[in-house]
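Blinded run. Sample ID left blank on purpose so nobody reads anything into the name before looking at the predicted structure. Input follows.
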Amino acid sequence: MSSVLTDICRYPIIQAPMAGGASCPELVAAVNGAGGLGFLAAGYKTTDGMYHEIKRLRRLTGRPFGVNLFMPQPQLADPGAVEVYRHQLAGEAAWYDTPLGDPDSSGDDGYEAKLAILLEDPVPAVSFTFGCPTRDTLDAFAGVGTYTVVTVTTPEEAQAAEWAGADAVCVQGVEAGGHQSTHRDDPQADGTGIGLLSLVAQVRETVQVPIIAAGGLMRGSQIAAVFAAGAQAAQLGTAFLACPESGAHLLHKQALTNPLFVRTALTRAFSGRPARGLVNRFMREHGPYAPAAYPQVHYLTSGLRKAAAKAGDAQGMALWAGQGHRMARELPAGRLVELLVEEVDAARAAVSTGSMQ
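Blinded prediction complete.
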């Protein structure tokens, strides 16, 4: 790890920020307590909601932690396409007896207000998703001692983040669960994501800043592989979803290893942006017709997803998960961090032993 990352966490294991409630203060505190680095997810939260979660976390742990922000999105959605999708979802609204949401609820996710709070009351680390902040923003965080990370999905995005002044890049492979963190949502690029090992190697040859690898990582042997490819740390999301401290819905946790859910796929069905989840009825029926309209579709389907969860219907929920979901282990988060470290050490030892034979 880089010296700054070493100052923030004992082990190069990072718990991914998972918007929607999974990355709650209890999970972050448990990961931090075991020597990893946990992230709160400010995405979809109000500014006050983010601030109160930070205060809750500080009451649980004195260790460093991070907060993730969503970058504001350009208004590129076709209102007509959103309206057509609204009509298509009318049957879902009737089935769950809940109204569809307002697609124009929010476009910037309270970005500027959240920046102001994090600069006034700094946290150890801040990461960004769906784009790269300006140099002025990254310089401002550097001025208050905050370590900045920009999530990237291509070598070009990594280079832009380095030029803007990011301290590190989180390299997200196409295997990752949840939203693909592309800086520009281009429907023509759907299905063209790069696998993690190849992407880490390409980014390593493009930038000098530290690399955090993310996407489908569930075992220490996989983490050792991305380290060998050039990463300094590994970020895991799906692996921590099943932990008892996770704020994910119980149905979501159970679905990770439920044999009814045999594969994942990228879909725009729930949010209007490509995101990887367990294939269920909602994804099969609506994915082929969902428009490229984020965050409009996210707000449109918000009530449906909540109603499905309340009804105990996993077939109507957004079950975000990476490709390695079947390898999820229902362990306390602190124990999972320890086990991953043990597995990394074992994998490295096996390689060393093999190289000497």
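Unblinding after everyone has recorded impressions. The chain has a mean pLDDT of 95.
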